[in-house]
Design goal:
By secondary structure, the chain is an alpha+beta fold. The chain has one domain. The protein has one helix and three strands. Strand 1 and strand 2 form a beta hairpin. The two termini are about 15 Å apart.
Length: about 45
């Protein structure tokens, strides 16, 4: 998984299958609350 922070203050998470989740840096508290769902998504073998 790669994590990048862009000049426009967005944080992008990308996995090996090029699935991406992008959040504005102000939404990082939201990210913390969705970490269990994010982990389930990334662990899904589809």
């Amino acid at each position: 998984m790669t994590v990048s922070i862009d000049a426009d203050n967005t944080v992008t998470f990308e996995d090996e299958q090029n699935r991406m989740i992008t959040l504005h840096i102000a939404e990082l508290d939201k990210l913390i609350s969705i970490l269990p769902q994010l982990r389930a998504l990334l662990d899904d073998p589809q």
